[in-house]
Each structure stands twice: as C-alpha cells, then as structure tokens.
Write a structure and sequence with these properties.
Length: 622
C-alpha cells in the first residue's frame, strides 16, 4: 500500500530566517563507529533487568524479547575477533513516527536515519507517519526525501510529521499498527518518544515477535523531561535545549529581581513528575531556591513544611536587607506532596467511578474534604481536571507556584502582624516556563545527539535486532569519543509494587518507568554544596542564548557532565578483564596463579551476590 495524501501542511517547506538557514547548513559529526558503509557489531551477554525482584515478572511478560544481548557498534580499526561484520545492505523500507510531546532535536533523528539508510542503499525508503500514532493506525504516510528534510534540519518542533496521541497500547491499536506495517511491507518501525512510548515500543516488538510479523521495532530516547534515564541512557534528546532556554529566562528574571529589589519570583518549570529540568536549571542559573519533588517525597514534606521553609528563607534574606529572590518549582511537585497526592488519588478515583466534576467535592472523605476546602478556589478547580491517560494529574495546568506564593504571603503577613518578622511587605510574581521552550531551536548538542541516534537506528536494523533502544554513551566527551550501541528495552523495565496491608501487595505491569533525580548523585551533591551561597549571596549566572559557535556552543548539561555514567563502556571494560583472566588462568598455569584467581573470584562473587539481592537494591513495596 502506498502513501496517503498529506493532511494539513506536514512536510511543507518552511520559510526560514537567516539564522535558521545558517543552522540548516550545519552537518552534525558522526563518531568513528558509525562512519563508512560497513556495520560492525559485537554482542555482549544477555541483558537482564536492573529490577532484580521484578525480573521474573518481566521475563514472563516478554518471553520473546527479554534476555537479549547488548550490542556494541565498533569502529573500523577495532580488533574484535568475534564481531559480526555486515557488508551487504539490501533495500529496506523503514517507518518512523513521533509518539510523545515534541522535543527539540527530535526531527534530527529522522534526518540521521534518512542519511544512514541512503548511504547504505540509495534505493531504500524512509516513510514518515503523519499526525503521530493516529497516522500510524490510519496508514497516513509521507515518503521522506532530501527536499522534505531541507528546511527541517537542526530546527525545532515536530511539524515535519506532527503528532497526536501518545500511545500504542490497546489491542485495537496494536492490531492497527501491525496491519500498517504488513500493508506497507516495513522492515522496521522506529518510535521516537519517552518512557511511555518506549514501553509501548517494547510491547509492540514482543507482539510482532510472537505473531511472526517481520517488522523490527526500535525505540529512540527523545523527551524534554530528561526522565528516561538508566544504565544505558545517559540523557535524552531535547533535555539540553529545554534547560538552556529556561535557564536564560530564569537568569533574566534573576537580574530583574536584583534590579528592582522588591519582588520574589516563583517560577514553575516543565518536567512532569521528575525534577531533572529544575535541577539542571538551578545549576545553570543559580536561583536562590529550588524545591525538588524527590526531596519532598523522601522527607515527606507537607505543603505547610514547604511554606515554612520558604518563609524562613525570606526572613533570613530580609535580615540582610534583601527583599527579592527567585524560587524554582518543578511542575510535578504537586504529586510529591503527600497530602495533595492523596487528595488527587481520591479525585481521580471518583472520576473513574463516573462522578461529575460538580459533585466530586461532596463525595470526598472527611480529611480530603477539609484539605480541599482549605485550598484557594483556583487550585480546587485545577485539581478537579480529568487525569491524563496514565492517570497522572494535568500537571501543566496546576499552578503550584501561585499556591505557594499565596501561602507564603499569608504566612509572612502573619509574622509581620505578630512582630516575629520586621521586614518589608512580601511581594510575589509567578511564572510558568512550559510550552514556550518546546518548539525552541535545538542546541548543538541536541542536533548532534538526535542525528547520531538516527544513524544508530539503521545499525540496529542492519543487525536484525527487535525490541531495542538506540543508545549513545560517553556523551559528556566530544562526538569523536561517543560510544554507540543498542540495549533491549525490556532490560530497562521495572515492576512497581503497592502495599495492600501487612501481607499482600499489588504488582503492576512491567514498564520503562520515569527516573527521578538521584539524591545520591553528583549533580544533586553539587547543588547541595552551593545551596547556602545561592540562597544568601545572589550569585546569579546567565548562560546566555543558544549558540552554534562561540564559547557556549559546546557546553553540555551540567548534570550530565558531573556524573560518571559510562555504563556500556564499563561493561565492555569488564568483558576485557574477564578475557584477560581467561587467557592467564588456563591449564598449565602455576599453582600460585590459580589459587590467587580462585580466591579473588570467590570474594568478588560473594560481594556481587549480596549487592544483587532485592533487599540490598531496595526493591521494597511502597
């Protein structure tokens, strides 16, 4: 089946500004392992789930795609005797679809995949689905050409193909996706998205394998929230851009606050449930305070605890004659505050039972009703909004920054009246930095990263892999040192558990879950080291606008640069050590060498057995 006529203006040539035209001429660099037309792949051991306690559940749910090996793509000069070298590249037909919210740099994945496909066989075709997964189900397609790409290279948005809903989940949707792949005779389907979209990609790959559909499914980590993060994925395409754009805006606000000296700015940042964007923006712009959802969850802070924390900071600054400041708040904070999360769960439960919005407040439990009535009317209305498809709140619509600003103002006025605060009247201004950045021109890093991931997708297809995610590690280094590979999506899955009393628990479905800020990580440690000076000293920092040339062009996210996360590199290093041990300890070696090897390996295995146990890795019910 061929293309369906294009809807709307998908793929239409853009009118580019001089700056956009200059950007379109930039050609991203490829790491050595992706250069040339020969694909060299080395397979590692079977990849197991990091969730030790959930591994059995995951393997049962994905019998055809769980336990597949890691794949490392090698450069021409690599000396690996058992590497699989692929020199024949038959004609292929590949489909690609955006699934999830638009993220800067996502369109470069399409460009990278197109260039890779055509470099290996000019007769191969790349077919884009129009309007996201709805277009996939309805077989609405457009063949990607050089002419199509010309005005979308290194540009923001998803308007080349568009997007709609973010799921391929129901039986009908999976059947429709498979029917499309069979009708279009696709060798592969590439799904660009975040945690939810890649979970769907894994399920689709499993279903295709079970039903012997020849189409291979590949996932690409693209989400501005930065919450698709694990042993194999260091960061996602779009995160760097979002943080740089927001950091400049925050810095502008910081300068304004310092100039006027009479306002506190409460800024809510996008990022869904995780606080990665808020953390990175804080490290880049140095606001006076940042409230991370993960801190709140860990310490079980109530809305009143957070209010007091901010009020105490305002009072401490007033004692130094400072009546201005900037406070960052992640949009997911509302779901991290225990009592507000519990209230939301009750409201969503009533939605699911069919209770109308007008009647929900009268059906709440006594404690929930009391909390609901305490909250300002604007927040009540926002909490009553219907939940998202994943049962989470409509976080972008809930103005937590206004709620906190109002509560802080009330408390400061109370302290002023009681005489415990002797400073000036508290004044607040609130902002939400959300949709403004989603269509931003991508940073150089996101342009490079997206383009390289597109090439990795072709390598995965050439190797005949199904149910894998394209990965690039060692990202904090120059592109020439990036390491490219592929990891089974099932190895990134976890199984959530909910306590249902002292003896029972409920187990959720295996999924690629959102990763929150690591409170033991180096990025958070860096924030902690500087939080006191950020609070009191006004050492605001402006990273400036996005640049393709000049001093800011090569900067990477600070939270990426300070971490040491080259997991795939370490796996490779371990394999090399094991091979070296095998080459030294073999029949004929000395008794002393053999004893030393056995003793050392016994100690290592004992320690690793303990570290791999569910109790050690903290797999407890919640």
């Amino acid at each position: 089946m061929g293309s369906v006529a294009m809807d709307s203006d998908y793929g239409a040539p853009r009118e580019l500004s001089p700056l956009q035209k200059a950007r379109a001429l930039y050609q991203p660099e490829l790491p050595p392992c992706l250069q040339g037309t020969t694909v060299r792949v080395e397979y590692g051991d079977a990849a197991i789930a990091a969730d030790v306690a959930g591994a059995h559940v995951i393997s049962q749910a994905f019998p055809h795609t769980y336990g597949q090996p890691l794949a490392h793509f090698l450069e021409k000069m690599a000396s690996v005797p058992d590497a699989n070298i692929i020199t024949e590249h038959p004609v292929v037909r590949v489909g690609i679809v955006f699934s999830g919210r638009q993220s800067p740099g996502g369109q470069n994945v399409i460009w990278g995949l197109y260039d890779a496909i055509k470099a290996h066989n000019p007769n191969s075709k790349l077919i884009g689905f129009l309007g996201g997964t709805d277009g996939l189900f309805a077989q609405k397609t457009m063949e990607i050409t050089e002419e199509t790409l010309s005005s979308y290279k290194n540009q923001g948005g998803y308007d080349m193909l568009g997007r709609t809903r973010d799921q391929i989940r129901t039986t009908e949707q999976v059947k429709a996706a498979m029917a499309t792949c069979q009708a279009l005779k696709l060798d592969a389907l590439v799904i660009i998205g975040g945690v939810t979209s890649n979970t769907d990609a894994a399920q689709l790959a499993e279903t295709f394998a079970e039903l012997k559909c020849p189409t291979k499914v590949v996932g690409v980590p693209v989400t501005l929230n930065g919450d698709l993060k694990n042993e194999f994925v260091e960061t996602t395409v779009g995160f760097d851009t979002i943080c740089k754009v927001n950091s400049q805006l925050i810095s502008n606000v910081c300068t304004d606050a310092l100039s006027a000296e009479k306002y506190y700015y409460f800024i809510r940042l996008m990022g869904r449930k995780a606080s990665h964007v808020a953390l990175e923006c804080a490290l880049q712009s140095h606001p006076n305070m940042v409230i991370l959802g993960e801190e709140v969850s860990m310490s079980k802070l109530t809305i009143f605890d957070i209010t007091k924390q901010i009020c105490d900071a305002v009072q401490a600054r007033a004692e130094k004659d400072k009546y201005h400041g900037v406070v960052l708040i992640p949009e997911g904070l509302v779901e991290s505050i225990p009592e507000l999360y519990a209230l939301l769960q009750e409201i969503h439960g009533l939605h699911n039972k069919g209770v109308s919005v007008e009647n929900i407040s009268s059906h709440l439990s006594p404690w929930a009703s009391a909390l609901f009535e305490f909250l300002p009317p604007f927040i009540r209305k926002q909490l009553l909004l219907h939940p998202e498809s994943d049962d989470s709140a409509q976080l972008s619509q809930i103005e937590t920054e206004k709620l906190l600003a109002q509560l802080v103002e009330t408390e400061m006025n109370k302290r002023l009246k009681e005489g415990t605060y002797k400073g000036k009247k508290f004044n607040a201004i609130c902002h939400f930095f959300g949709y403004q950045a989603r269509g931003a021109l991508p940073s150089k890093f996101d342009c490079d990263y997206g383009y390289v991931l597109g090439h990795v997708c072709y390598h995965i297809l050439a190797a005949g892999l199904n149910g894998y995610m394209a990965t690039v590690t060692n990202l904090k280094s120059p592109v020439s040192k990036w390491k490219c590979g592929a990891a089974p999506i099932t190895s990134m899955m976890t199984v959530k558990r909910w306590s249902r009393g002292p003896t029972t628990s409920q187990i959720g479905k295996p999924a690629v879950h959102m990763a929150g800020v690591d409170l033991k990580g180096k990025a958070y440690e860096l924030l902690q080291q500087n939080s006191s000076s950020f609070l009191m000293e006004d050492i605001y920092r402006n990273p400036g606008p996005l640049q393709f040339e000049g001093p800011g062009a090569e900067t990477k996210p600070i939270s990426l640069s300070v971490e040491d996360r080259d997991y795939m590199g370490r796996i490779k290093q371990l394999q090399e050590y094991l091979e070296k041990v095998k080459s030294i300890v073999k029949p004929g070696c000395s008794q002393d060498v053999l004893k030393a090897a056995v003793s050392a390996m016994a100690s290592v295995t004992d320690m690793l057995t303990i570290m791999s146990s569910p109790s050690f890795s903290g797999q407890a019910t919640i």
